[in-house]
Amino acid sequence: MINMVKLPTNKSSLFLRVAKGHFATSHSHINYYIDVTTQKSRLSEAKAVAKELVAAYQHNTIVDTVLCLDGTQVIGTCLANELTKDGFSNMNAHQTIYIITPEYTTGSQIILRDNLAPMVKGKHVLILAASITTGYTAQAAIEAVNYYGGMVAGLSAIFATTNECLGIPVTSIFDPSSLPDYASFDSRECPLCKAGQHIDALVNSFGYSAL
């Protein structure tokens, strides 16, 4: 069992729940596991996340569809609610915003079923992720939106280690400044592995499996 610690932040209604150690993701090794489960599933925290993220799109961004990655549908719904309030631009004919979740092939390629594809084609799509670190998933999402005929309106995450992906700016609430010693390594060059430190858990945006 890994030891989770709740860290206060400069966001009064939000916190970071983290564990320090040696963790393996599908694309890298990291020295912190950041647990965003409650932000994704507890309504009060999802609303707080949405209110923080929406500021980046308040004045000049059109959003018709929110593409939710990593189980962020509750946040996506709260974000859509914020975006449809007075003062936001919305070109959707029904004055609403679609909330959709993609599927993945065995090779991690994003696909949309025929009933969801029209919600992207010709639409301004905001991509929402729990975290953006290596950028592989975000890149796949951008490529999928382009493939299905949509336009990427923005890229948002709770935690991100990069400011852009394929030329699209990344908006996040937390970044490495919230965890000054956060580090991510290529699995083949991981200094923790080279030092003989065992992996504590396999992790992804949905949780962890301790080893």
UniProtKB/TrEMBL annotation:
The keyword Ribosomal protein does not apply. GO terms for molecular function: glycosyltransferase activity. CDD domains: PRTases_typeI. InterPro entries: PRTase-like, PRTase_dom. Signal peptide: none annotated. The keyword Membrane does not apply. SUPFAM superfamilies: PRTase-like (SSF53271). Keywords: Glycosyltransferase, Transferase. This is Orotate phosphoribosyltransferase. It comes from Faecalibacterium hattorii.
